[in-house]
């Protein structure tokens, strides 16, 4: 691999649009959380999947249950969220959309409202502390919890969209794709859309979701998470591809997550090139940087080495992610300006200028 790719990807200003809060907790933060709750007897091996290891989707979802035991109070959540935001910033992420599922924890008195407020507070505190990153919050619906909870979550998200000064911008649909059906959640998602919340939905993460994806595309979503099995070569359909292309709906693509969760056989077989070659908007994301021991820089490096992307292509990929974000127009313009004035942009344009000569 080009030895300059690693520092380039780290220095590259980046946009992260698909990051689950509790899946993004680093080893260092996990250590602090484990130390706070020694009685749980939780080992590191239970909260992360390391390089070279692969687990079934089911096994991966067990990991979240363990992490949720470690993050079950307002204090834990505030500490974890702030650490995650700082780490993304240290990795060169300048705009982040963090998603998380509001939870009730009776032991500690955590309510769903408190949960959302704590994540918002973490975002505000990072801003006050001048952490170099703009953070927005997508309130997540866990598909496992059914239509009533989904509707309740939409109402919660709507409330905070109106009162969080632009921090809450949308909703995510996630959770074990083998559980529940999107058709039951459609009314809640429709309501979310109608009240102005943006929708980032996990779709076709597993092969058996063709019908569900057709249905969810009628909303339509503003972005798609994974979309691994949308295209006909992997059992999807032309109709799905056509609708996604027609709607120009960006895809959030998480290479390592798909390999480690065994929904994609190898990096080479990832669906990134399928969509990238079509010129469709693709955004590289981490999904769960803590659980999958990765970083956004590493995901850019992997895309570069696996699919032969040069520095110019990586730059364009990161810049195009700005327009796929749910940031208000004014913020998008500020980010565009920041990218245009970035020192790396100068070297890269000199390089590509030299290449052109
Ligand atoms: C298991 C695996 C391969 C994970 C990657 N793919 C995923 N697919 C669907 N939902 C997810 C995934 N990763 C994280 N989540 C959701 O994010 C939650 C953890 O973050 P949080 O508590 O919402 O802050 C999980 O409980 C789950 O609802
Ligand atoms: Zn995800």
Automatic annotation (TrEMBL):
PANTHER family: ADENOSINE DEAMINASE, ADENOSINE DEAMINASE-LIKE PROTEIN
InterPro entries: A_deaminase_dom, Ado/ade_deaminase, Metal_Hydrolase
Subunit structure: Monomer.
MF GO annotations: adenosine deaminase activity; metal ion binding
Protein name in the entry: N6-Methyl-AMP deaminase
Catalytic activity: N(6)-methyl-AMP + H2O + H(+) = IMP + methylamine
Record key words, sorted: Hydrolase, Metal-binding, Nucleotide metabolism, Zinc
The encoding gene: MAPDA
Pfam families: A_deaminase
């Amino acid at each position: 691999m080009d030895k300059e790719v690693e520092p380039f990807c780290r220095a590259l200003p980046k946009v992260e649009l698909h990051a689950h809060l509790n899946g993004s907790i680093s080893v260092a933060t996990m250590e602090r959380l484990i130390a706070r709750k020694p009685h749980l007897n939780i080992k590191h091996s239970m909260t992360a999947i390391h390089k070279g290891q692969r687990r079934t989707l089911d096994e991966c979802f067990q990991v979240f249950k363990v992490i949720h035991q470690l993050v079950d109070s307002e204090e834990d959540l505030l500490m974890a969220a702030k650490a995650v935001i700082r780490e993304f910033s240290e990795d060169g992420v300048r705009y982040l959309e963090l998603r998380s599922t509001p939870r009730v924890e009776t032991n500690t008195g955590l309510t769903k409202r408190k949960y959302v407020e704590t994540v918002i507070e973490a975002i505000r505190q990072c801003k006050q502390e001048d952490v170099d990153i703009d953070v927005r919050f997508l309130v997540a619906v866990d598909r496992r919890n059914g239509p009533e909870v989904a509707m309740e979550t939409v109402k919660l998200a709507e409330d905070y969209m109106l009162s969080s000064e632009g921090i809450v911008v949308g909703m995510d649909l996630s959770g074990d794709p083998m559980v529940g059906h999107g058709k039951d959640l459609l009314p809640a998602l429709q309501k979310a859309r109608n009240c102005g919340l943006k929708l980032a939905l996990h779709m076709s993460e597993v092969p058996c979701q063709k019908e569900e994806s057709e249905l969810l595309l009628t909303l339509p979503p503003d972005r798609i998470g994974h979309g691994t099995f949308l295209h006909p070569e992997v059992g999807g359909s032309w109709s799905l591809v056509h609708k996604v292309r027609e709607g120009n709906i960006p895809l959030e693509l998480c290479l390592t997550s798909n390999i480690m969760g065994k929904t994609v056989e190898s990096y080479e077989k990832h669906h990134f090139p399928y969509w990238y070659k079509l010129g469709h908007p693709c955004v590289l994301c981490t999904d769960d940087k803590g659980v999958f021991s990765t970083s956004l820089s590493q995901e850019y490096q992997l895309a570069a080495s696996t699919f032969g992307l040069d520095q110019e292509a990586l730059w364009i990929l990161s810049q195009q992610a700005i327009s796929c974000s749910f940031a208000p127009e004014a913020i998008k313009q500020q980010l565009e300006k920041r990218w245009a004035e970035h020192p790396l942009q100068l070297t890269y344009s000199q390089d590509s200028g030299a290449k052109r000569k």
